Amino acid sequence: MSAGSVALVVPSDFGVADLYELGIPAAVFGTPQPDLADPWYELWLCGTGNRSRDTMPGFTLNSAHGLEDIVSADTVIVSWVPDEVFEDNAPVPPELVSALRRAHDNGARIVSACVGAYALAEAGLLDGKKATAHWMHTALLAERYPEIQVDASQLYIDEGDVLTSAGMSAGLDLCLHLVRRDLGAHVANQLARRMIVPGHRPGHLGQYVDLSVPASDEQGLTPVLDWARARLDEPLTIEVLARQAAMSPRTFYRKLHATTGTTPLQWLLNERITRAQALLESTDLSVEKIAALSGIGTANNLRHHFLKQVGKSPSDYRQAFPRHQA
């Protein structure tokens, strides 16, 4: 599938706190990766004010694109609304709302991170849909827009042509999810490896995780999780993983949940689906063989779980992406 153009809305008054959430999509979509996919995404920085202006001490934005250009983009990303929107219940800038509506009507995929969900909500793009934002702002979002099913517990939510994510690092999870949707698991995993982050964190994981785990890697879970990833085709259970980690099953369950936000069985299923995606992209193996190699068992089981998590059948997924060498 084609990567397409990504319009990143850059506010006229962005500050130091905004640099992180703006920098994530800029790094993911604005850095060519010709060995992974060529052409890569085309990133447009779309300013909400003058094309060239001082934005904060030491920074000047020079943009060839304005807010009006998001209407012709394939993907639009908004991670900002003025502070007064969620602090003083002020209206979302009408020019941003109008541009988002026109972009959506034109077929663009609309994406928000953090408080950008307020702009999508004001544009009516989240009506009747599930959505999330940074957990500090979800209560007000739900109160202000009762027609939206706000879920503060998720990292990101994919509703097809409209996607929302929590703030800060959850934006990276959503960006990698978009790459995975557009270009496949192989490309997304390789990109994540270059960025030194996990290849895939499902959106249903909790926004905030108890990180009170031992600092020593030998005492942590990395060795046993790597051990499990190398044996996904084997019958792994909580008891097997706990024994490998030299813990009781109850302790292992608690530590894994605190570290990853998910249960051992769900973690295994996520890893097995990721393995199946990579095999579908990189080999001509049958669905039955891929089901066995990924540890899911039968082709019917793979189809069931794949459709539930990925949104399409294994066969349709294989046809949607170009062949990559493993």
TrEMBL record:
CDD domains: GATase1_AraC_1. The keyword Cell inner membrane does not apply. It comes from Lentzea flaviverrucosa. Keywords: DNA-binding, Transcription, Transcription regulation. Pfam families: DJ-1_PfpI, HTH_18. InterPro entries: Class_I_gatase-like, DJ-1/PfpI, Homeodomain-like_sf, HTH_AraC, HTH_AraC-typ_CS, INH-QAR. Residues 222-320 form the HTH araC/xylS-type domain. SUPFAM superfamilies: Class I glutamine amidotransferase-like, Homeodomain-like. This is Transcriptional regulator GlxA family, contains an amidase domain and an AraC-type DNA-binding HTH domain. The keyword Transferase does not apply. One of its GO terms (molecular function) is sequence-specific DNA binding.
